[in-house]
Amino acid sequence: MSKKHTRREVLGHAARGTALAGLGGLTGLLWMKANATFAWSINAQRCINSRLGAVGVEVCERCATECVLSLSAVRAVNEFKACGRCYICPAYFQITSAVGSDGLPTEKVCPRDAIKREAIGWIDPDDPANNFYEYTIDETLCNGCGRCVLECKEPAGLGSIRLEVRHDTCLDCNRCAIAQACPEDAFDRPEPT
Amino acid sequence: MILSAVLRPHLPRAAGLGLLLALAATAPRPAGAQEVLQYERPVDVAPTEETIGEGYVVPEVQRPRPLSAFRQVVDVTLLAVALVLAAWLAIFRRQRGWLVALTSACLLYFGFYREGCVCPIGSTQNVAVALVDHTYAVPHYVIVLFVLPLVAALLFGRVFCAGVCPLGAIQELVVLKPVEVPARLDKALGWLKWLYLGAAVYFAVLPAVERDFVICRFDPFVGLFRFTGAAWLLMLGGAMLIAGVFVGRPYCRWLCPYGALLSAFSRYAWRPFSITPDRELDCGLCQSACPYGAIEERRAVRTSCFACGRCYRSCPVHHAATAESVVPASALTSPAEPPKP
Amino acid sequence: MEYRLAQRFGGRGFAPHQFRQALRGVAVDGGGRLHAVGDSVVKVFDPDGTLLRQWATGQPGESAAVDDEGRVWVGQDGQVEIFSPEGERVDSRRDPGRLGLVTAVGFGGGDVFLADATARWVRRYGSDGSLLNNIGDQHRKGGFHIPNGVVDFAVDDGGVLHVANPGMHRVERYSPDGTLLGRFGRFDGQDPAGFPGCCNPTNLTVDDQGRVIVSEKAGPRVKVYDPDGELLTVVAAGVFDPGAKNMDLAVDAHGRLYVADTATLEICAFEPTGREATA
Fold first, then answer.
1. Whole-model pTM?
2. Same domain for A104 and A28?
């Protein structure tokens, strides 16, 4: 015996089918366009820390303070091949602080001590000022406050440090709190390529 | 003599002052005398590998690790599992206890651990923008997040609201002294969520410079999930929770824009939560037990029913019939079978 | 000891005594005449700055030196051209595949020393033209550190080479076979005895007393050090064009010092005055 389909049931099936088809179509349409790299990034040229004057300015640390995560998703990064490898790095040492007995300034710029300083190449023991040092940023400590970015630029530094968003931590919020607060609109979701 | 008489009472003070001055004179000089570096940069360009010598090679610059697909896959899988579980528990198993457990688990994971973001409610905006703006892309898992609860609504009704949505879950758990809202007011307020959906889509599809994701901005509970936020946001969340103690799930019933979509889709649900007619009893205790006004004429209104399960918890037939076991719904329709004690 | 600016001659222009685009090297011969190279030409001046003669070179000249026979050696890119005192081209030296930009030429013990700025060290060739050894290639940092692209050196009367290592902010002394004998200088922006900035001293020469005369860029100045590396005097600062760098130096037997201002294309002549510093 065949079951009689009421009109209500048929209409119900039709509506469901249409709705499912609609959802399927929507999914297909958006799936083709989907792009996993559509995420927040910092335009290093616009970041105000690399553009402010060198003396007596306050650092813009909104990248560290505004992020909704407790440890911001922004990190400082040293572009090694552009770094001067100087004995006294203005982004590592606070060059306006008092000089200690070893001839190096006593205070450091990074409030969380995230920059590591290591001698590289051939070290001349009699000639410290002419030896080279590598400055690496420890990403487990850095919170993206931007003080090193502020210090490393002309005339003191070569501008090799910049801020970058860590996409494995960034939540990719629709309303990025840092993007709202950035005074230079340097925070952006670039178009998918 | 008069002079000494005048001066004498001041002597101790003067002596003390003199002692202080003497000490100050011998105190170590302050840091102003310490040397500060006259900084001069020793290079104009970065040194090359050969200049540094000794086999030095420029190290790789730390790059951001790619977005972990693993976390997204986990989230989407858990969402699917929770939806299926909610449907099973609410509609087939009919156990409110387990449903509360699922609600709490989802609140803890999607709410406090994932901090309520990314959520299907907000994904509505992303989908809207992606349809309008060809330069805008939505990640795969956000599409799935948007579509899955809607598919579940087509199949089983608003099971997403049953206990999976963390915003719903947090309100669900504070409904303690629900009062009944007059039906007409309820209906009128129900239109607000369509207005909100319209506004959310409107602001989302504006050109990029004016675009505003209002659902995210006015999400009342995200501040509570993150334990931090703007004062007004936290107060809004708190107020909504306090209101929720007395008026069941105000955000879900009247404001949630995704709920507007779910109510539209659940209208054609295949196997939604339902209350079967009982010719003998028809007591209506379920209707008064429902805090959301989703039962009319002792039947569940599938577009507003959140499948919370309070109705069958207060159903005497269900109680008498089940205790431990589960009585299939079809058994209740047969009048010949008397309820067993 | 003190110096005074005696004269400026040359300059930028089209007159016979002027240079059009570049002034790269200066050298003094036994008669005190100044040979200046740049622009694919050699101009010879007498000590007052009067142009005596000039002749063309095959390529733009980078450096110049005059040997004991009066022949003028002009260092160029990949080769050295040798001219008679009258300007006739008599010979050339090449070392294909090895010799790069020759930015200084010197003589000692019958050998010829050529500063190779491409390789960043000094090459020593015998009178037959064969390469004997290199000086400075044993540097642990791969040669002299020359961000300015010019290696300059001078050979003193004892046959010791004094080479400027600007990136390391010092002057180094070598024996002709390449052994490091000593060095002086340190990076210091404040003390005049130190070498400031990224890379100084850029050029140097040695007088017959063994004193080392250096030129610096970026606040260009010329200084004189004694053979042990103690600063004797600052010859001039603020006299040169601020953009001048790699200013070549030459000194004659009377101590008259010639400095090639590479920005204004002038040759500045300085005379020592009055008292000598006590030895």
1. 0.76
2. no
- Residue B270's pLDDT band, with cuts at 50, 70 and 90, is confident
Same domain, A60 and A20: no
Domains in chain C: boundaries: 2-273
* Cα Rg of chain C (Å, integer): 17
Which residue in C has a C-alpha nearest to residue A120's C-alpha? C141
Residues of chain A with C-beta less than 8 angstroms from the C-beta of C140 = 121-122
How confident is residue B56, by pLDDT bands cut at 50, 70 and 90? confident
Chain centroid to CA B292: 20
pLDDT over threshold 80, residue C264:
yes
Within a 13 Å sphere around the CA of B52, how many CA atoms are in the beta-carbon half?
A: 23
* Whole-number pLDDT of residue A190: 75
- Return d(Cα A13, Cα A5) in angstroms, integer: 10
Domain that holds residue A1: 1-34
Residue A109 sits in the same domain as residue A60: yes
Q: Which residues of B touch C196 (CB under 8 A)?
A: 40
Closest Cβ–Cβ partner in B41, B117, B127 for A156 = B41
Two structure tokens written together for B34: 């310490």
Prediction ipTM score: 0.76
Tell me whether the omega of the peptide bond preceding residue B118 falls within 30 degrees of 0, making it cis: yes
Q: Where does the pLDDT of residue B271 fall: very low under 50, low under 70, confident under 90, or very high at 90 and above?
A: confident
Tell me the nearest-neighbour CA distance from A49 into chain B, angstroms.
20
- Whether residue A72 sits in one domain with residue A9: no
The helix/strand/coil state of B78 is helix
The distance of C80 to chain B (nearest Cα, Å) reads: 27
Q: Indicate the residue of A30, A121, A165 with minimum beta-carbon distance to B138.
A: A30
Taking CB atoms and an 8 Å limit, are B46 and A27 in contact across chains?
Answer: no
